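Let's practice the habit of predicting before peeking. Look at the sequence and jot down your guess about where helices and strands might fall. Then scroll down.
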Amino acid sequence: MEPLAAKIRPKNLKEFIGQEHLVGPGNPSTGLGAGPIREAIEKKHLFSFILWGPPGVGKTTLAKIYANALGADFVELSAVSAGKDDIKEVVKGQAGLRPTILFLDEIHRFNKAQQDFLLPFVETGRITLVGATTENPSFEVISPLLSRCRVFVLNELSPEELSKIIDRTGIAMDKAAREWVINFANGDARQLLGLLEATQALYKEVNIQTLTDALQSKYIRYDKKGDEHYDTISAFIKSMRASQPDAALYYLARMVEAGEDPKFIARRMVIFASEDVGLADPMALEVANNVFRAVEVIGLPECAINLAHGVCYLSGAPKTKRSYEAYFRAVEDVKQYGNLPIPLQIRNPVTKLMKDLDYGKGYERYPKNDLLPEKLKGKKYLI
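Done guessing? Here is the structure:
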């Protein structure tokens, strides 16, 4: 059976809901022009671009509408599972009579080597790339590729727009249920439709009670922006903190299998290496950084092995928060006293006047003197 989201997916801009700043028709009386994607469709302008926005706001649908309107072949890949061989197949499969638009979902999951491989095909026009990402492309897409693409920012859907999507489903519900499910969706049409579909499949009738019951069911996916996301990463960190590698590996596997961004997990491990392991094992930070680098270069699914390696090391490492706590003790004094005068002996004497004022004087002879500002002499942060 066709999923609800696919069944009601808009086929053209007339049916598309939301993102008026990109696809709106404009208003000549106010001088407001049409949205840039509408302009591109109307003028049959073929170019590469990246759609950046939160989940469930129409990125895939908009890419399909664009390709269809321009009469292009549409090839959809997910950067989670695709690789260089898939790109080669796309290029090899070009008939030559029609342009090929490659829609690369979650483009931020492509590592640098994969993006480098894709670049010449985009550069020469062999492929028109439409990327979709929930992450800032400035950080996740290599500069040469980014410079060849326009970036369009998509917004969360408003309650009014989500209400229109509910109308399109034809699912009956009272006003209270409609408000409840719109609030739950939080601007994400995919969440909205997923919950409505699960509720109808389980209970037929849609009301607040059946919506709440369906929300607890296995039909609802792991939500990377919701409670399960935060609960799972919390359990993961606390398991490593408690030196329980088995529990940490379990929560790692849950996140990876649910589609969590491996770089998000690796970042938390780098933080953990300094915050929780710290001076007890300085090698932990090097291991965590190497894991992060491996995740960037290798990508899924293989980088899960690198993550597991790091998790086992960090879980087994001795723990101390001395450096972490010392830093925040220093922060308290910065907030309380502001920018206290720096002792002259450690100021930088870059001009003759500064030397004449004794900047830097005595540092070489007395390098072990207390170098804190006068008001904080004798203060100990690292305990």
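How did you do? The two ends are 64 Å apart (CA to CA).
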